[in-house]
Amino acid sequence: MKEPAKNLKEIKNAVDEFKNRIKRENGIWYRGVVNSTFDLIPSLQRSLPRGTYHAKIVEIEKKMFEIFKETPELQGHQYTDWELLYLMQHFGVKTRFLDWSYSALVSLFFATYNWDKKQNARIWLLDPHLLNEVYLKESAIVSPKKEKAYFNFLDSFTIDNSIYAFDGYGLNYQGINKRIAAQ
């Protein structure tokens, strides 16, 4: 879209145009941000200096994960690594996750929640099948198994270019966490 949308109809038209261009009606992911200059960089990377090596980012995330899982409120519950990461993200702990939604309206909510109207908001649209075709050479959406450890799983897919490595793949989290599925 060249010009910012001025109303819901223009947003809907842009979404429909995207769907028509990729020829895929379902499975599009949406992400709303309050400032159109924000890049698709997870909160953990945004909090670190540019040029931080990927191994350092993973090390920091692992340390935060270990601290988080010892939180007294979590004791006595059985959580998978994935569920703990979702909880970390939900409670504002910086991770390598980017929140995406299957709903354009949910992304619109996040794009306009606490939005400073002096800036343009943005809704990102993503075809995760195409992303995986580019990075994994297959269009399937990867579904992590509940029992598989988060860090081992990501290590098997990570594209490591040493500095600010982009873990480029679409993961389907539905069925693992009800809060994620609701978005």
Q: What does this molecule look like?
A:
The protein has 183 residues and is mostly helical. Helices cover 40% and strands 5% of the residues. It has eight helices and two strands; from the N terminus they run H-E-H-H-H-H-E-H-H-H. It has a two-stranded antiparallel ribbon. The longest helix has 16 residues. The protein is globular and about 50 Å long. It starts with 7 loop residues before the first helix and ends with a helix.
Question: How do you describe this structure in short?
Answer:
This is FRG domain-containing protein. The chain is mainly α and 183 residues long.
In quaternary terms, these chains amount to single chain
Helix content: 40-55%
Q: Given the C-alpha coordinates, what overall shape results?
A: globular
Structural class: mainly alpha
How many strands, which pairing sense, and closed or not: the largest β-sheet?
2 strands, antiparallel
* Adjacency order of strands in the biggest sheet: 1-2
Domain FRG: 24-124
InterPro entries: FRG-dom
Protein name: FRG domain-containing protein
Organism: Planococcus antarcticus DSM 14505
